[in-house]
Amino acid sequence: LDGKGAGLSERATVLTNAFAEAKNLVLAMGGEEDSLYGYAGIGDLMATCFSPDSRNYSFGRYLGSGLSVDETALMLNSVAEGVPTASIIGNLAKKYNVKMPIAETVNKLVSKK
Fold first, then answer.
1. Alpha helical stretches, state H, 1-113
2. Distance between CA atoms of 76 and 103, rounded to whole angstroms?
């Protein structure tokens, strides 16, 4: 969203909905909802989504600015773990029958060459 010039309100809306998707998946898999509200849950999500030091944030910013997945990977010159994780999340969502439209969209974006 930053690469597209989206504002903080748009980013917050997507982040809130993505967190709800993650919560639904965690619960469907038998996880504890409380674990989402600590450093490993919302703390990591916020750092990943807002920190220019985050490889995932940087990957998304470059991709959103119009670079291809391959060009973005070259610019980053390191692994953004969210790229391979996107397909894993998609597979888990199907397995546990959880609707995750934001995660599905991210997976489509990062799986294109």
1. 8-28, 44-50, 55-64, 69-76, 82-95, 101-111
2. 22
- pLDDT at residue number 45: 87
Q: How far apart are CA 67 and CA 60, in angstroms?
A: 10
**pLDDT tens per residue across span 88-101:** 999 999 999 999 99
- Burial code (b: 16+ CB inside 10 Å, e: under 16) for 33-54 equals eeebeeeebeeeeeebbeeeeb
The amino acid that residue 84 corresponds to is P
Q: Is 22 helix (H, G, I), strand (E, B) or coil?
A: helix
Any idea what DSSP says for residue 28?
Answer: H
Tokens of 5: 């010039």
Alpha-carbon gap, residue 83 to 97, rounded angstroms = 22
pTM > 0.90: no
